[in-house]
Amino acid sequence: MFGFFKPKAEAEALVEKRFAIMEFYGQNWDPGKLALEQDGALDHLAYWAKLIVEGTVLLAGPWENFEAAWVVLSDKVTTWDQACAIAEGDPWAKSRQVEAIVQLWNTNPLLP
Prior knowledge:
This protein has 112 residues and is of the alpha+beta class. The protein has helices at 8-14, 41-54, 80-89, 91-94, and strands spanning 17-25, 57-62, 68-73, 98-106. It has a four-stranded antiparallel sheet.
């Protein structure tokens, strides 16, 4: 065990739950185009930018290899239904260019 881990009870008390969304290529993604060349790219970016400005999204962006993207939702999103509605609201999800998985994510309680 590493020395920086907090005792289990203390660590569990610090865990905050957040919803996270992973988006990956869907059936209508065009593999011959870069992400910004995909149909609806500006609508996709505007959708997520609006949610960031509103404080609904904490972090969002693609992995370095652009094979998937990760979105971390703020504590304004408290239910699965809300998180799923956000994922389904992405114009790329509507057009099946991306598929989304919604997960409940624990923040890291190991920080001092």
